[in-house]
Amino acid sequence: MSFEVTALDARLRWLVRLRWIAVAAVVATIAAASRLGRIGHAAPLYEWTAVLVVANAVFELLNRRKAALEASAALQVVTDLIVLTFLMHFAGGSGNPFAFFYVFHVIIASILFAPRTAWLTAVLAAVLFGGLTTADLVTGALACPRHPILGQPNEVSKSFALGRLGAFAATVGAAAYFGTTIMSGLRAKQAELVESRERLAQAEKLAAIGELAAGIAHELNTPLGSILVAAEVVKEGTPGGSEGSQMLGDIVRETKRCKEITRALLDLARKRELQLEETDAGEVVKHAVELVKRESGARAACVEVEVPRGLPSVRADAGALGQVVVNVLKNALDAVEGRDGAKVRVLAGCDMGEVTVRVEDNGPGIGKEALKRVFEPFYTTKAPGRGTGLGLPVSYAIMRDLKGEIAIESAEGRGTSVTLMLPIG
């Protein structure tokens, strides 16, 4: 079950418990008002309270079964407001001071649900209160002829009733506005906190794995170097084109690949001595793209670059930043290789005090579960032999050391977008 569904389930269970308390309070209020002679006919009030009891029992059952939670949430709000309206009608009409509970429901909706639901609750509350006011004016003889609190005749003038309706609509509108604004801000802060915790956990995981892998890489580096030198020496003395020469060539090539992997592992774990200085990010991007184009040849023909003039400088290590751009761009080229209409775009820009470099491709994209693991060492979605699964972890570590960020957006069948963000200056 997703986090959003679990949170909604918890909120609805809380709302059901709150409603049981409200039922008890309503019954006690009706009994007290009847004893004091404030209400002439209590039967309709008890009947609508019974409706609320039955509805809440159904809502509790639906919550336990985790059935249609979003629909249940909307139905609960609508039911509460309708029952409240009829209780008000039979206990003083629109002049009943318990009209405050319309505003209360709008505030509750702002806290528990999305802004759209809160605004719909405010609109529904205004419509129902308008219907209640209209019923008071049309019927003349109210269901409760005397005010339930003051005991005086419950007379309503048209101008006063309409003025009260206008004030009520403004009140629920204000409650919805302030409630949704505050809760949207809180939810945004909560999302930022969750994201920060995930990044911290990712950084700790990378550090732990990096230290372990670096130890292994260091032990392997020396024997790999010896194998490479020996294979190259023997290959020089072997007749070209022979089977032995081909096999030695394979040994040299694969040994070099192993050394590349160990080098990447060491890069992942070591503390970089970065030379932070004022850096023209646009020039770094252009240089990295040209480097990849020379190395990749014809398959890089699909790369488009957009770097605006006058891009603000950043404090960074040009070499390290260039390595990240190269890693990301190579991944994009691998993703679109062999596809009709292959396209890779490298876009640099400035946004919210940051210089951004975005690399977009129209490749097959990355699935939701795979996207959660792209920064894990050795994890790759490429075919066997095409990648080590270290390019993005190394890039993540570099961007962290540069006080920047790297973010990936992707979906299966919709391509991938990787964004690098560095603070200006």
Structural description of this entry:
This protein has 11 helices and 7 strands. The strands form 2 sheets. Strands 2-4-5-7-6 form a 5-stranded mixed sheet. Strands 1-3 form a two-stranded antiparallel sheet. Helix 1 (3-35) packs antiparallel against helix 2, helix 1 packs parallel to helix 3 (69-89) and helix 4 (100-112) runs antiparallel to helix 5 (115-139). The model has no long low-confidence stretch (mean pLDDT 82). With 425 residues, the chain is of the alpha+beta class.
Task: Please give a quick description of this structure.
The chain has 425 residues and is an alpha+beta fold. The chain contains eleven helices and seven strands.
Write the layout of secondary structure elements.
Elements: H1 3-35, H2 43-64, H3 69-89, H4 100-112, H5 115-139, H6 158-236, H7 243-269, E1 277-279, H8 281-296, E2 303-306, E3 314-316, H9 318-336, E4 344-351, E5 354-361, H10 368-371, H11 391-401, E6 405-410, E7 416-423
Parallel strand pairs: 2-4
Antiparallel strand pairs: 1-3, 4-5, 5-7, 6-7
Helix pairs in contact: 1-2, 1-3, 2-3, 3-4, 3-5, 4-5, 4-6, 5-6, 6-7, 7-11, 8-9, 9-11
